[in-house]
Amino acid sequence: MTRRKDPRSARSPVPAGELPPFTPVPRLCNRHDGWTPERQLGFIEALADTGSVEAACKAVDMSTVGAYHLRRQPGAESFRKAWETALQLGVQRVEDVTMDRALNGVEEPLYSYGKLIGTRRKYNDRLLMFILRNRAPERFAAGGGPRGLNAVSQMQLDRLKKQWRKEWEAEQCHVSPADVRASIDRKIEDLRRRIERERPNRYAALSDETRAAFAHFCALRDRDLAAMDADENTRRMVEARLDTPATHFDPPEVPLLPEPKRAAEEDGGVPKAPEWVRNRRKKAPPPPPRTEWTLKDEGFDP
């Protein structure tokens, strides 16, 4: 079987300095039409040039099944590393070609009535924006997401946010409304105790003139309340002295109203619809018939 030469002139080879050195996979039987060391080197070079395993196999006239089989053989560790490095070089070449198409466009033929009349250059703005968002995400990040992240990083960030949210919810203790009310009551009680402790110090800080003025104010207030015959609620609202406790202005406790009985409990478990629903379900009486009068000229002879 005669194999064709590798058409090196048809490809743009990667510089030799960028190709990864590797040890060829040892073969049990050295065949001239098999994976010889020269053919393995040619495959890695073609893979670095094209970034495609199928194209690299065609370049050395071998099958993709044989390439993946060679990759799994014992002693192919160096070959596998060279394979991965060559793929990275191939991806870089694909990026360069994509950038060239985004900047310079693609030349397309123009036909008229089935005849070629010329060519035109077509530019892809979406391809250009895709490259900008991935090459410079801090400047051209898509709206709605944090800047500096590409699509893969955005997906990872969303997944981490969900994980952090679940962890935070697990750490939070579930507090009932009764616990919240009890906490507020404790804080109010602590505030009252602090006011009661500070009351003697505040009273001692007042001057004699201030105390006399406040006593005169209390006397005038009591006189006005007596003149207007104020009730107990009004006196409680305006009556305050220096020794008045902090609980003086607390609202009185309002007894809770009993829960209304359900209609289902009164009628033995059969729920009743509200009155306005029952009224709406009632059919309105039909309107009375209307009498229509008509004028006919029968047998009129002018």
Describe the model.
With 302 residues, the protein is mainly α. The chain has four domains: 94 residues, no CATH class; 55 residues, no CATH class; 29 residues; 35 residues. It is built from twelve helices and two strands. Strands 1-2 form a two-stranded antiparallel sheet. Helix 4 crosses helix 5. It starts with 36 loop residues before the first helix and ends in a 21-residue tail after the last helix. 8% of the residues are buried.
SSE string, helices as H and strands as E: HHHHEEHHHHHHHH
**Main sheet: strands, sense, barrel:** 2 strands, antiparallel
Low-pLDDT segments: 1-12
Measured by DSSP, the beta-strand proportion falls in under 5%
Structural class by helix and strand composition: mainly alpha
- How many helical elements? 12
Q: Please estimate the helix content.
A: 40-55%
**How many strand segments?**
2
- From the spread of the alpha carbons, the general shape counts as elongated
Count up the domains: 4
The end-to-end distance, rounded to whole angstroms, is 122 Å
Strand order, largest beta sheet: 1-2
Tell me the Rg in angstroms: 47 Å
Mean model confidence by pLDDT: 77
Summary tags:
single chain, 302 residues, mainly alpha, 4 domains, two-stranded antiparallel ribbon, 12 helices, disordered N terminus
Indicate the topology.
Elements: H1 37-50, H2 53-59, H3 64-71, H4 77-104, E1 106-112, E2 115-122, H5 125-135, H6 137-140, H7 151-171, H8 177-205, H9 208-227, H10 232-238, H11 263-266, H12 275-281
Antiparallel strand pairs: 1-2
